[in-house]
Amino acid sequence: MSYQPHYATREPLRSRLDGEPGLAVLEFGAPWCGHCHAAQPLLRDLLGEYPDAVHLKVEDGKGRPMGRSFGVTLWPTVIVMEQGKELARAVRPTTLDDLSSLDDALSARVVPPVR
């Protein structure tokens, strides 16, 4: 699975994410967030290069503890994790350059597809 256009219907447990093997890309935001909508084409392009990374869109906001456990204060916040460890983070990306740390973290751990 790569790019996921919809928010998860249930917020995942932090303990489950921390124990998940492989690469995970967590995207914190809200369905009504303009910055989140604007970032979608960038994220779709980036994540299209890494189909083995799990992309999980987590709706954040009042009463939602997952974002607080990651220190999220602005949307979207996108975090690359591997086995519970944060590898890279991008906050309010507006260009592909803003996602370069995510791309670097993903490409360092994924064998690129043969083209």
Plain-language structure description:
- The protein is of the alpha+beta class and 115 residues long.
- It has four helices and four strands; from the N terminus they run αβαβαββα.
- The protein has a single domain, classed as Glutaredoxin, CATH 3.40.30.
- The protein is 30% helix and 23% strand.
- β3 and β4 form a beta hairpin.
Produce the secondary structure layout.
Layout: H1 14-19, E1 23-29, H2 34-48, E2 54-59, H3 65-69, E3 77-82, E4 85-91, H4 100-107
Parallel strand pairs: 1-2
Antiparallel strand pairs: 1-3, 3-4
Number of domains: 1
CATH superfamily placement: Glutaredoxin
The CATH class turns out to be Alpha Beta
Structural class by helix and strand composition: alpha+beta
Number of strands: 4
Helices and strands, in N-to-C order?
A: HEHEHEEH
